[in-house]
Amino acid sequence: EATSSVLLLRACLALLAWPIYLLSFLGLWEPFCRKVLFPFLLDNIGAVHNRKSKKHKQELFRNLPDFRGPSGELRLLEIGTGGGSNFQFYPAGCRVTCTDINSNFQESLSKNMKKNQHLHYEQFLVATAEDLRQVPSGSMDAVVCTLVLCSVHSVSSALREVLRVLRPGGAFYFFEHVAAEHSSWRYFWQQVYYPTWKLVFAGCCLTRELWKNMEEAKFSELKIQHISVAMPWMPIEPHIMGYGVK
User: How far, in Å, CA of 229 to CA of 235, rounded?
Assistant: First the structure.
């Protein structure tokens, strides 16, 4: 429930960001954000986040090879690949299919593909997390999703698609920022920033309690860790990471 002080501060922030709201109203902001601003922000803020989360991701992806298919190969689908910052964590010989809703990351993507030639890149699909119809059911050993579920329209639909494309015994790996403790100042500021942040960061929602969605999805086994990635000046804190087995 947004309190009156949250609403007042939201209005002040909207006033400061009024050119963005105006461009959004005119339908000009979204294309600019998708093509220019968001790839720029992801390259820059993303680079800091990648450095801070590197140890956590190494720990998270350590057991990826355990989910190789019967053929001995690991077929991996990454949802919201962006510039490909996760490629470095995937085991050698892994067959990677990339998907993203935004096709404007070519520069950083090709840079990361060159850096990570230990992988086989199968294909790149422009697709939303909620609609992966181009990926056959049961065709993947692992699905990876990092900092993506904050901005999908429907988390439950995205998780249904994840379970559809995974083979039985396959695993879904996630690393996401979530809502802070409701009684905390951090949560107060997440509520204040929410509408303007969502506009600037291509639909990113600050207050999702994604661990609840994971628990409601039909995983046969689920491991979730609540962790902190030290980004004190950013409202994208705390985080959850872990994996669920189909």
Answer: 11
